[in-house]
Amino acid sequence: GAGVSQSPSNKVTEKGKDVELRCDPISGHTALYWYRQSLGQGLEFLIYFQGNSAPDKSGLPSDRFSAERTGGSVSTLTIQRTQQEDSAVYLCASSSQGVNTEAFFGQGTRLTVV
Amino acid sequence: DAKTTQPPSMDCAEGRAANLPCNHSTISGNEYVYWYRQIHSQGPQYIIHGLKNNETNEMASLIITEDRKSSTLILPHATLRDTAVYYCIVRPRERTSYDKVIFGPGTSLSVIP
Predict the structure, then answer these.
(1) Higher model confidence: residue B98 or residue A50?
(2) Could you tell me which residues of chain A have a Cβ less than 8 Å from any Cβ in chain B?
């Protein structure tokens, strides 16, 4: 596709359930980022992939959160045993390897834990 | 962890220039200044970036001080559609394992009719 695609766009889940959020980056982009944005708040960095590897996982809020990226393309953010405080918009961005390259964001997945 | 500081909010009259300041006093020599904006309920949108020279594109101008410790994003003729949160960030020149792209709280710009 032409841009970063995230699915689903909206997800309502019950507390305690697991959820998977998907990000399709722009084709050829080697860098991929996940952020979380709670209502009325700024962007909270979660994790960054360079290719399939994540050099820094320190932004993940707890061990219930995990992310993987396969084939240097699609990434999945998994939240296990969801809690109400996990409710937020989860944003994905990608950028190419070259210098001075901007990150392009998807429209996000709005997760609501009830 | 954000390396930038911005005023939390600003107002601007429609049709006037909006000047959004950003301080990045700890910026290193290989880091660029990037600006993004986020219109309500949308993903952030890239605006412009620069190293040390002033930059201009169809959206905005970026003025970086000579010591590179601060910059100003200029929207020359603000419209109501420019109402958004504007983020100033610093990023390394090359994508490395340190490219966490940390966003601060940004400046909420309100363009007033």
Answers:
(1) A50
(2) 4, 30-31, 33, 35, 41-43, 45, 48, 50, 55-56, 59, 91, 93, 95-108
Residue B15: what pLDDT? Answer: 96
Q: Which of these, A99, A62, A4, A110, lies nearest to B51 by C-alpha position?
A: A99
What's the average model confidence in pLDDT over A20-35? 93
Q: What is the pLDDT of residues A52-68, one digit of tens each?
A: 888 778 889 999 999 99
Q: Which two tokens stand for residue A57?
A: 């996982």
CB contact at 8 A, A42 and B105: yes
Distance to chain A for B64, nearest Cα, Å:
16
Distance CA B89, CA A109 (A): 23
